[in-house]
Write a structure and sequence with these properties.
heterodimer, A: mainly alpha, MetI-like fold, 13 helices, 76% helix, 0% strand, globular, B: mainly alpha, 16 helices
Chain lengths: 327, 309
């Protein structure tokens, strides 16, 4: 145990010192050049380590993944579009896609709506209680999805009828006189998937609330006053004056949660491992890669995920350009 | 995007009726003016957030036989009966279930993966903000677009690449991957922050004959502390809480960090809830402390528009 910690300290010291040495070496090297060249070359030298990391760990493997998606399970023989057509024609994979779409349709919208609702309401509390309420709701941001999964698996725990229940949800249900339900296996209307979504919503509403609360507080009072003088009621003021002004933040939160939802892996992995029709694509990716050892399918699934993220990426870049133009 | 979707039943149940919500959807020039419906609703929401964690904590402190036989809420009848409380679950989960070692492993994975990328990103952000060079805008746009790319795109080839170098299962595999995956966000946060520093300051340093090296270390790094801190917290929480990268590149076994060990504990047959809850709470302690003590840096990083893909 001590050995491991020493190992980590050595890694930190070596990593930081190594980087420092590398940069000062690069800087000195540039200093040897004539002054005109020094100014031209130095920016690139400062950028080399960061771009190398991004190139080696994101761009190169991403390209490689696209190529692998056209190859067989061992990434040896070219198979064209077979991976895609086989996946898309399999009923199980279609069901997995459908489940992922359900997550995408429900979780971001609910997270934004609930976060906004809580932000607006807690704004009316006294400052002290507002802060306490917000900290409580924000806290799950610090917890891992594995931790959140542990908490909620305990809540959904089911014991046979007649035995005392130790899971809170069945405790309530049996106290009301109903039979206990094995929640994580209830596939009617995707009930079990919805229970998994509750975990992610629980974990992310705090994020949504904090950002939206800052935006709501930033709405100038004059615009609200003006609306009231013109005879707008509370509801009209909220939907016609406040919402349009905080809309950019709403979009930011929505996109952030959306990206998180598309990659959701931990929650289904620890709760059901995709059984009982709760599979999602990133879990299927993992299972194809490890359980099935099919690198071709795994790569094809990731490429589909990448295609789904593409519109968000384009939007993100456009937003950034607009923002820079204002600067 | 704005189309209404059906909220999950649990959440829907807790919402008050339409009339109550419309009455209270004002904006807070009247702080403290909440009516009872608003207070009741927020109290219920807070309970929904707190009670699950309390249930976990209470169960982790109960005797095994009782924890697995009756609901944790039954302790409310006689909370002062000391015989039902124990710390044994924690010592058992730390030793027999390997969570103690996993805690050290998590530290070993997280600290270098948090500290090393900061310096690399700071140099790049400096170049992007204060230096003129060809291709600067294109390169930065690439970084912005990479922010939303899921890390999954990189995993299959990295696994093969690591295989040829014999890195799979080692801490270095996780360090390198997290340094790469965290880099776009790090450069983005730091560059956006540096762009808000007064340019006149840098100009005058230049006139006084300071080199880029000196300007970077003596002026920009100290001034950028808030942004450095906010990235550090993001990255710390991200790496500590990560399951996928750890599962792929380190895996179960003696190097497994807490998330991997905990996922194994959850999946194992016949583990008592007294141990599972203790393990679960154990995984959360350090990130909760970091988060609560440094919350304001975290929030400022968030409001600067950071999205992690």
């Amino acid at each position: 145990m001590i050995f491991q910690l020493v190992n980590a300290v050595v890694a930190i010291v070596a990593g930081v010192l190594g980087a420092l040495l590398l940069y000062s070496l690069l800087d000195r090297l540039a200093g040897l050049l004539p002054i005109k060249w020094e100014d031209r070359v130095k920016p690139y030298l400062y950028l080399v380590p960061a771009t190398a990391a991004i190139g080696l760990f994101l761009i190169y493997p991403a390209v490689q993944t696209i190529i692998f998606s056209f190859y067989d399970r061992e990434s040896i023989a070219f198979v064209g579009l077979d991976n895609y057509s086989e996946l898309l024609s399999s009923p199980e994979f279609r069901q997995t896609l459908l489940n992922t779409l359900l997550w995408i349709a429900i979780v971001p919208a609910v997270t934004v709506a609930l976060g906004l609702f809580i932000a607006v309401l807690s704004d009316r509390l006294k400052p002290g209680s507002e802060k306490t309420a917000k900290t409580i709701i924000f806290l799950p941001m610090a917890i891992s999805m594995v931790g959140a999964g542990t908490i909620w698996k305990f809540i959904y725990e089911a014991r046979p009828a007649g035995e005392p229940q130790i899971g809170l949800q069945n405790g309530v249900v049996t106290a009301l006189g109903f039979d206990p339900v094995v929640w994580l296996q209830s596939q009617t209307l995707h009930l079990n998937s919805l229970f998994l979504m509750v975990i992610l919503i629980w974990a992310q509403v705090g994020f949504s609330m904090v950002l939206l609360s800052a935006a709501v507080k930033g709405v100038p009072d004059e615009t609200l006053e003006a609306a009231r003088i013109d005879g707008a009621n509370e509801r009209q003021t909220f939907f016609r004056i406040v919402v349009p002004q905080i809309w950019p933040t709403v979009i930011t939160v929505f996109i952030t949660v959306l990206i998180g939802v598309m990659k959701v892996f931990d929650i289904p992995y620890v709760m059901t491992n995709g059984n009982f029709n709760t599979n999602v694509i990133t879990l299927e990716f993992y299972n194809q890669l490890f359980t099935n050892g099919n690198g071709g399918y795994a790569a094809a699934i990731v490429v589909m995920l990448m295609l789904a993220v593409l519109p968000v990426m384009i939007y993100q870049v456009r937003q950034f350009r607009l923002q820079e133009a204002e600067r | 995007m704005s189309t209404a979707t059906t909220p999950p039943p649990e959440v829907a149940d807790k919402k008050p009726s339409k009339s109550a919500s419309s009455k209270s959807s004002g904006v807070g020039e009247n702080a403290g003016g909440a009516n009872w419906a608003v207070k009741l609703f927020l109290l219920l929401v807070c309970l929904m957030w707190v009670v699950p964690v309390v249930g976990l904590l209470v169960t982790s402190l109960r005797n095994p036989s009782e924890a697995n036989a009756t609901g944790w809420w039954t302790v409310l009848k006689s909370p002062l009966d000391a015989t039902q409380w124990t710390l044994d679950n924690y010592s058992e989960v730390a030793t027999n279930n390997g969570m103690g070692r996993a805690f050290m492993n998590s530290l070993v994975v997280t600290l270098p993966a948090t500290i090393i990328p900061i310096m690399i990103a700071a140099f790049a952000a400096y170049a992007f903000t204060f230096m003129e060079f060809k291709g600067r805008d294109v390169l930065f746009i690439v970084i912005v677009s990479l922010l939303v790319v899921p890390n999954q795109v990189a995993l299959v080839p990295l696994l093969k690449l690591y295989g040829t170098f014999g890195l799979n299962g080692t801490f270095a595999a996780a360090w390198l991957a997290h340094i790469g995956f965290g880099m776009p966000l790090a450069v983005y946060i730091l560059r956006n922050y540096m762009a808000t520093l007064p340019r006149s300051l840098i100009e005058s340093a230049k006139i006084d004959g300071a080199s880029h090296w000196q300007t970077f270390w003596l002026l920009i790094v100290p001034l950028s502390t808030p942004a450095l801190a906010s990235f550090a917290i993001f990255q710390f929480l991200w790496v500590w809480n990560d399951l996928l990268v750890a599962l792929l590149f380190i895996g179960p076994g003696e190097n497994a960090p807490m998330t991997v060990q905990m996922a194994g504990l959850l999946g194992a047959q016949g583990q008592g809830w007294n141990l599972i809850t203790a393990g679960g709470f154990f995984t959360m302690v350090l990130p909760l402390i970091v988060f609560l003590s440094l919350q304001r840096f975290f929030v400022s990083g968030m409001t600067s528009g950071a999205v992690k893909g």
